[in-house]
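Case 251 in the screening queue. Each case pairs one protein sequence with one candidate compound; here the compound is phosphoenolpyruvate. For every case the pipeline is the same: read the inputs, emit a complex structure as tokens, and attach any notable structural observations.

Predict complex for case 251.
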Amino acid sequence: MKLLMAANWKMFKKLDEAALYSKELAKLARNLPPDREVALFAPFTSLRVCADNLGGSVALGGQNCYPAAEGAFTGEISPGMLLDCGCSHVLVGHSERRAILGENDAFIGKKCAFALSAGLQVLLCIGESLEERDKGLLRAVLERQLGEDLAAVPETASAQNLSVAYEPVWAIGTGRVAGAPDILEAHALIRAFLERRFPDRGKMMRILYGGSVKPENVAEIIALDNVNGVLVGGASLQIDGFSRIVRAPVA
Ligand code: PEP
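Case 251 output:
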């Protein structure tokens, strides 16, 4: 399984910046290490220009979608609209959407199932808060999120179409990266859940780590068991930094 090195721009970059970056990213994609794939999760307004510049060399995804084909859902974007803009992927359940936009697991579960059935590859984000971790609730939180978020996903979902990003909330945008033992423990829990839930496929589903990944720490992270890539926010905003992350050797 190739490592997936994914950039999440969050709410950054206007069209001119997105155009410049995606042209550079397309050049980078022409010369990737053989064990790597790259994905870019861009704001809706930049997707089309990124799709044109990337020309399929990098997987492109939206950062959110609404679980309906169309309708009176002002301000929302459907999976079909993402596909129409050249996307193959979508992020679901990012902790910023859970915490700031009030998304709960029931709604995230609808999004996962609907986006998959519409033909998008889903990267489901889960992770515990510091308070939950300190109370010893890591396993309970991860299993609750996985259970509810994937409740309506068929057992036959393909390993290619469903990936999970473990993003401890206390490590996102804080500069505080989770230590190797923390990552190993959480990823092993997630792997065990996926293997139970998707008996034939769970072992092949990617589990990405996200939370203050940088050029300086990525080599150690991608060397860990059950780490099949990284989801990078802040450090993906400059193409030079993201390029160093994408090319980092495995430690
Ligand atoms: C993210 O946005 O998914 C993320 C992990 O952000 P950062 O790399 O900035 O912590």
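Case 251 observations:
- The domain at 3-20+28-246 is CATH 3.20.20.70 (TIM Barrel).
- The mean pLDDT is 97.
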